[in-house]
Every structure is written in structure tokens, then in C-alpha cells.
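Input.
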Amino acid sequence: MSGSTLILIAVAGIFTLLFLVMRTKLHAFVSLLLVSLLVGKFGEDKAQWALGITGFIVAVPVFFDVGFIILVPIIYGLAKKTGRSLLYYGIPLLAGLAVTHSFIPPTPGPIAVANLIGAELGWVILFGILAGIPSMILAGPIFGKYIAKKIHVNIPDYMEFEEVDTSKELPSFKMILSLISIPLVLILANTLSAVLLEEGNVIRTFFTFMGHPFVALTIATLLTFIFLGTRRGYTRDEVQEIATKALEPAGIIILVTGAGGVFKQVLIDSGVGDVLGEMMAGSPLPAIVLAFLIATVVRVAQGSATVSMVTAAGLITPLLELQNITGAALGLIVIAIASGATVLSHVNDSGFWLVNRYFGLDVKDTLKSWTVMETIIGLTGFAVVFLISLFII
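Output.
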């Protein structure tokens, strides 16, 4: 199957998922309504799958922790109504959120790695989806059903939540679908035009510009300010205040990403990068395996998935240059790094404690549930891209 055909399939998959999940009026940050609708479409017996798909989609426009905090009241409500363990519903949601957060741009980790190693985001999105779907299924509904039988968790006494006011009219389905899809479609169109059209072609030049991540995301952001801001009655000052507030959690991501770039350049300028590259080049292991292992080691040592990604990207870059790995293969490397940076989350990871507190787990049970779920995601994602690499790299 050709690269262009795979990309077209990815575009169709994104639209299909968005259409099936976001069926009625919705704002991305009012995700409670989305889950309520899905449960009423799928029924309580299929709520695990609905939650997994919801997490997979919701994590596109919002950060992992934000999506989880917004959606966790639905988990409480389902567990209270059915008497099941919180993990029965919580693990599928967490898996969906974690997969997209780690594998699929425009989330910060894969974007940072793609920028550092020079991978095209179109390929990263494509391979992220291909690796992410089976990862979500295995780590979410399947593992969630298993672990819920082993660990029964009730709603913690200290967790109270308020009902969301849904009386205000929400944006239309078409509006939200369009705004979320704009950057993804433009980035994929950029990659597709590079495959189908010759360099210098006017259409290719146009999509090269429009599909650049900075341009695509800027366009989506400006349109969001207009259609979800001023067109809905917000003043310019209110839109500016909302935008400023939204930038706060991104600050540390920008700092970490910048530090990753500095680290990479230090390796290059000092010559250490060349030495590491030559040492790695002598290893019998393929570059994609080394990328996964490096990210895994850093992940276990310091906890942060994003730091693990940018560190592994900096270390693997000299090898990629020596072996002249380019194009779609770099997209596979990005997902391999993301997979390694996902496995074995433990007590030095903030996500570990977020789940620990919201589900009222002790450390042992958090390791058995959250840590195993993250490891399944990472191993499955790596297995998928490794198999694809046998035909590409």
C-alpha cells in the first residue's frame, strides 16, 4: 500500500472518529456531555469502549490532566450507578487520553521530538494513529475489565464534584469538528502533497506553507478566537484573558522543549553527539530499538514523559544522521521514542499521583493498574511501529 493511500486512510479515520464521537453540540472543554451522549448511544455495557474513544479524541485539543479532571465525574457517576470498580471505567478513559497525549500531535511531546529529529508531522500523525488505536484497545477496555476484577475501588470519600451547568447553548457539532480538524488536515495535506506533487508545484508550495505546524495551529487558534469567542458574545478583553489563562500550563512544556533543543545543540557542538552516534552505530540493534530503549531508561530515571522524549531525541539524532534515516522512517522513530517515554510510569511521574489521588488508590494498586496500563500502551505502540519499520527502514 502506498504512502499516499495510508495518509488518505488516516484522514478518513480522523473524520470518522470525530463524527461518531462528537455527534451533537459540544465544546471540547465541556467533555462531560460527550461522554453522557456516548454512554446513551453505546449503553452501560459498552461504556468502556465509549470512554476509550472519548479519551482518544478529547486529548487532541486538551492536555492529559485537564481532560482527566474534566471527565472523572462521569467515571464516578457510572461506578456509583453500576457498583463496579472505578478502574473498570477509569482505565479505558486514561488509556485513550494517554495514547493521544503521547503519540498524536498537536500534543507537545511528539511535536517536540519531531522538531528535534526533523520528522514530518504528517507521518507522525499517521503512525501515531496506527500505533495508538491497538494500544488504546489493549490497555483500555481489555486491561480495564481484567484489573477491575482484581482491584475493586470505590469513589474516595474526599472527592466531591459539582454538576456542570449545561443550560448555556453550546457551539454546534460542525463548528467544533471544523476547528479541531483544521490543523490536522492542513498538516496531513502538507505531507500528502509532498508525496504526490513535484517540488516547485504551486499547490505543493501552498500546502507546504499552510501545513507547517506553526501556521496550521495559528490559523486554528485565530478562528477559535473568532467563532468561539467574539461571535459568541465574548469581548476582546475576555478572549485575551481566556487565551492568557490557557497559556499557563504550556509554560513548562515550552521550557522543557527549549531545554531539549539546547541539550541537542550541546551534544552537537561539543562533539559528544558524534561520539555517541558512532558508538550507537556500532551496536547491532536497529535505530528504532535504540530510540525506544533510550527513552525508556530516561523515563524510569526521571519520570517526565516529555523530558524523556526530548532527551532521547537529542541522543538519537547523531545516529539518524549517520545512517541517513529520513522521511516516513523518522515518523516511526518519533513514535518509538514516545512509546519508550510512556512505559513504566511510577512514583516520580506526576500522572501516577494524579490517578492515585482521584481514584483513592494506594501505591501498590496504582502500580498494578496505572503503571501496567502505561506499559501496555508503550509496548504495543512500539511493537506496531517496529513491525512497520521492517518494510520502511
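Confidence is low (pLDDT under 50) at residues 1-37, 161-168.
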